[in-house]
Amino acid sequence: MIGYSGAGKSTLVRLINALERPTSGTVLVGDDELTALPERRVRAVRREIGMIFQQFNLFSSRTVAGNVAYPLKLAGVGQPERDRKVAQLLDFVGLLEKAHAHPEQLSGGQKQRVGIARALATDPKLLLADEATSALDPETTADVLALLKRVNRELGVTIVVITHEMEAIRSIADRVAVMDAGRIVELGDVYDVFAHPSTPTVARFVATVLHDRPSPETVQRLRAAHPGRLVTIAVLDQKGFTGLLSRVFAEHGVENQIVFGGISELQERTIGALTYELTGEPARIDAALAALAAQGIAHDEEAAA
Amino acid sequence: MNDFLNDLPLFVQSIGETLLTVLISLVVSGALGLVLGVVLYVTRRDGLLQNRAVNIIVNVLVNIVRPIPFVIFVIAIFPLTVAVLGTYIGVPGAIFAISLSAAFAVARIVEQNLVAVDPGVIEAARAMGASPLRIIVTVLIPEGLGPLILGFTFVYVGLIDMSAQAGVIGGGGLGSFALSYGLQRYNYTIIYITVAVIIVIVQLGQFFGNWLARKALRR
User: Fold this and answer.
1) Can you give the residue ranges of every domain in chain A?
2) TM spans, by residue (chain B) (predicted)?
3) What CATH homologous superfamily does A212-301 map to?
4) Which A-chain residues 91-120 have CB contacts (< 8 A) with chain B?
């Protein structure tokens, strides 16, 4: 789930484990209708849902092992089994040697890994990650995201990631919901949403990670150096795509030059956009663009200065 | 000085009475105040057990008792003390009055320290499915323990002050000793010795409290 601060992401995620109750509507988690359950029953459901936080929220009065053991104590797991499970979880997140350290002795990334171990203690099917990497530096963020990906792939835990960083979505999400002013404005497969953003909010988020389309300022600078028509074409995930473009332009006698753009990979598929300067007779350029459109290749012409 | 040597056994007994009064009052008012303080904290708006009515009642109660000067409070509750203990004279009467009065001060100190506990860790415990009572006992109090100990130490110093005041109106201890054998005999040596002993008692308590709080905070 992505959105700017105040978009309602944290509220939405807190509805999932009933830390907040909706004024209307129902919340379903698996087969449980949380909104129909009394507080006592909701607590039982919460034990099946892990949660990690931006500020980690570790118990400073307990050791690393004590933090991870806490949810197991709540679940009534006996000491031998608890010790075994804590060791296994700390090993999974790579912090076994820190078991007897206190939270304040850990770095941010280590704290979050303890948070993840603690959230996984009761073998939840669902893990809620509320801005889990927003307080971390880029390198640590990548480590924590990689760990979350392992949690998802190796342990089969569904993760709801709340973030305002598109990079986090790009690196670990399969599906994305874009939130704006308390509403979900777009929901779908990450590749589709990135490739075809439907609202300006979504497009702005996509632009923060892809950097593949020129900003208005960039267009102005480009225009000063390039007198021809400037056309931006979304790169589709198909073999020989750029070669195809060059061939079509050549067939129509249109000179072309790439002046801006970026191509990267998303979910093992190609994504990006290229800005061409096209020079030649206007009619031929139009014909070339029409030919591309006929093959399902759309373009955006950068407005004239 | 000769006078003082004659009074030495009584002086030692007075020290014992003061320590007994202060320590028992600390335990009783500490326990009572902890409960009241936790109630104040958890019944706040958006608290673990949000309850406006209870919060207002306890708040008003605390606000009524707290501004009453202690000397007047002791006298005002004489009937209650007599009803409970049969007498208001002596160490038990002093302990009763001090514990009751201090409990309300402790309640505020506890509330203030709990407010400073990171709400994030409480939310984390809620998200794990912990019940409110469990959160209070296993998260809230342990997380606030360092400042709570310092708060109790602060109260301890106040209790010595209160025990001396109670002593003056029949409670025994160093307060009544300084009054009867110092002031009424114009023997300032005795008053100064008493003051010195009280300073030592305060210092020892403060050092112990600081040491305990440092251990709880690990710094």
Assistant:
1) 2-207, 212-301
2) 20-42, 54-78, 84-107, 135-157, 190-213
3) ACT domain (3.30.70.260)
4) 102, 104
Q: What is the rounded average pLDDT of the residues B193-214?
A: 93
Q: What is the pLDDT of residue A143?
A: 94
Q: How confident is the model at residue A268 (pLDDT cuts 50, 70, 90)?
A: confident
Cβ pairs A/B, distance under 8 A: 60
Q: How far does Cα A134 stand from its chain's mean position?
A: 12
ipTM: 0.85
- Tell me the pLDDT tens digit for each residue of B122-171: 999 999 999 999 999 999 999 999 999 999 999 999 999 899 888 888 77
Assign domain A2-207 to its CATH superfamily.
Answer: P-loop containing nucleotide triphosphate hydrolases (3.40.50.300)
- The residue among B86, B95, B116 whose CA lies nearest residue B32 is B95
Q: Which run of H or of E encompasses A161?
A: strand A158-162
Distance, CA of A267 to CA of A249 (rounded, Å) = 30
Q: What is the CA radius of gyration of chain A?
A: 25
